[in-house]
Amino acid sequence: MNSSKKVLLYDTTLRDGNQDRKISLSLADKLQIARILDHYGFDYIEGGWPNPSNPTDEEFFQKIKEVKLKHAKIAAFGSTRRPKVLPEQDPLLQALVKSGAPVKTIFGKSWDLHVTEVIRTTLDENIAMIRSSINYLKQDENTKEVVYDAEHFFDGYKANSVYALLTLFAAQSGGADYIVLCDTNGGTMPWEIEAIVEKVKALIKTPLGIHVHNDSGLAVANSLYAVKAGCSMVQGVVNGYGERCGNANLTTIAADLFFKMNCNFETVRKLKNLRQLSGSIDQIVNLPSDVHAPYVGDAAFAHKGGAHIDGVMKVSRSFEHVDPHTVGNDRVFVTSDQAGGSLVVEKLKAIKPGIDKKDPVVGKLLKEIKERENAGWHFDSAEASFKLLVYRHLGMVQEPFKVLNYRVIEDKTPQGVSVSQATVKLQIGDKISHQVSEGDGPVNALDAALRKALLPFFPNMAKVRLDDFKVRVLGSNVASDATVRVWTTFGDEHGFWNMAGVSSNIIEACWMAFVDGLTYKILIDENVVKDAYKHLAFSSTAPKIVDSSSSKNDECTSENSSVYMLKLLKQDDGKFIEHVTNEVGNYFQMMKEDYDKEKKLIDQEKKLLLSSEREWYKLFDDKHSILKKNDIDINNIIKAFWIDYDKLLKV
After folding, report:
1. Which of 341, 389, 585, 594 shows a CA-CA span of 20 to 30 A to 307?
2. Do the Cβ atoms of 644 and 619 come closer than 8 Å?
3. How far is the C-alpha of 381 from the C-alpha of 66, rounded, in Å?
4. H or E stretch covering 593
């Protein structure tokens, strides 16, 4: 693998990941995940499928314009136009245009089975749908790029390679900036992926991408083989969520591309925080982290048994394929008391440079962190909680206020309306602040009362948002006395931070998270906490969109197949036909130079071509036969090939 190979990471967590049966992302979830993905350097973030039946996604594309993204491009997902409908009259394409997303990603059919039996149209009309839809989107003034997802491409190629390739030529002719080959059913083997991508790469000049599902447990391997064969874009989902068995896991793929294939991509700069990325997304989607996840799981570098531990302690690489610290993880010796200590010490040094890991204070802090994690705290996804714990334990902060007491009352009026009322009493300096607030439930009332008590002394409390709030039951005890972890996301005009609270009392867990979250904000304003924010959040200025389109529409047509396809190839002032001529020439040349290697492929294609009723298919097969039987000059073959096409067109 060339060490300079550039790979683009296209994340579809907000759409394809949201297809997971255990995930249902809110608008706030989507916006927060988008900010995180941008922070970690993902090149594309697919926000969803905007259409009238999906108001959450429609609103997302309006709200995301207010987000100051540092690197990522936002993509809106959709499909090609419907059969026999002009692009400008198709409601799904219109919804894509309305989204204003700089990148439009549409899928189309590559498998003839889906064309005739699922969407029930003709093969020619499907070709027209692909080209005209892409062409239409390229004319949109807000569209910078169009990505074409060739749905079911690998199954389609294995069933009818000629037609599957024609759909790609149609996408290329329409002006697609990337063509993504999809293993939608997830049943293709890695060696098949590699061989097919290599053949497509020889014929298609548009940059290729890969999108695979994990139904055979091979999504990561298939993605890597596709990159090896020439794909420069990888689509997938952080942590591999998705429908059925999930999508390609971009968390694992990113690490593999860097450590195993020496690829270059923007996220490389943040790989040392890969575990934190994985945990943060798990927390937002409210799913437990996979302890066995490669690179980032709790057990990824866990060693149990004397021989293994002895080997790692002598030479770490004897039982570890990479240094766990390079992905933000740590080795764990299951049979000993030292678990995760070195990584925590590194984090302590970032907060207090020069601290000695042998200092007794550090030992006590490590013990407390371990006890809290055993109790259910999860500091990887609540970095602000970790920082505040360290600042307090090392005596680096003075608490800005003291909680004297708090109380929550639930009542119901004679009319049957539930009323939640919270009372909070704080001491700030020598002053007492005693406030009462009502809210939509006890948690909201408690949050409101705490802010109300702090606001006269800390005016910036008015700028603090509670962007996300989630509760997870911990352990196997799911009764009413179960321990819960509350996870919150606070934000202001500069960024956001995550806080957690753990208790068997859900109100107490909420209170802990709220107090720490607002305390953290006060310490930020007092310039006590350094590097407090994860990254920038919202801006009042929408990102500038640049126009980059200049193509004409195709008309819907049901012309005779051979005449229509010839017209398609003759468009664009002869440029496309010249391009295809060169590509067919290259293909013929490949057959001629390496006949033995390709004999099986030729025989398979001949069988498909002979079964077709199209005259130009028969012509194509005739040229294959001539090539195989006679050592004729390749240029004469190509010339004769197109002369025959012209004759058909005139007829």
Report:
1. 341
2. yes
3. 25
4. helix 575-593
Q: At which residue do the structure tokens 């700030």 appear?
A: 428
262's tokens: 């020496």
Calculate Rg over the CA atoms of the chain. Answer: 29
Total count of domains within the chain: 4
Q: What are 18-46's pLDDT values in tens digits? A: 999 999 999 999 999 999 999 999 999 99
Among the candidates 525, 547, 571, a domain finishes at: 525
Q: Is the pLDDT of residue 633 over 50?
A: no
356 and 272 inside one domain: no
Q: Domain range spanning residue 463?
A: 402-525
C-alpha–C-alpha distance, residues 120 and 129, integer Å: 13
**What is the C-alpha separation between 139 and 463, in angstroms, rounded?**
41
Contact criterion met (CB below 8 Å) for 106 and 137: yes
Judged by DSSP in three states, 145 sits in: strand
Q: Tokens for 216, please give them.
A: 């055979």
Shared domain check, 340 and 266: no
SS3 content of the chain, % helix, strand, coil (to 5): 50, 20, 35
pLDDT tens digit string along 350-387? Answer: 788 877 777 788 888 888 888 888 888 888 778 888 88
* Tokens found for residue 210: 């890969």
| pTM for this predicted structure | 0.67
CATH code, 167: 3.20.20.70
Closest CA to 515 of 423, 422, 403, 431: 403
What are the angstrom distances between the C-alpha of 294 and each of 227, 237, 255, 497?
Answer: 20, 15, 9, 26
Does some domain include residue 276? yes
Written in H, E and C, the secondary structure of 7-73 is CEEEECCCCCHHHCCCCCCCHHHHHHHHHHHHHCCCCEEEEECCECCEHHHHHHHHHHHHECCCCCE
Residue 208 structure tokens = 């290729």
The two beta strands, 496-503 and 484-491, are antiparallel
Q: Using H for helix, E for strand and C for coil, what is the string for 455-480?
A: CCCCHHHHHCEEEEEEEEECCCCCCC
28-67 residues labelled b (16+ CB within 10 A) or e (exposed): bbbbbbbbbbbbbbbbbbbbbbbbeeeeebbebbeebbeb
Evaluate whether 127 touches 174 at the Cβ level (below 8 Å).
no
Q: Mind spelling out the 3-state secondary structure of 162-181?
A: HHHHHHHHHHHHHCCCEEEE
Residue 290 lies in a domain: no
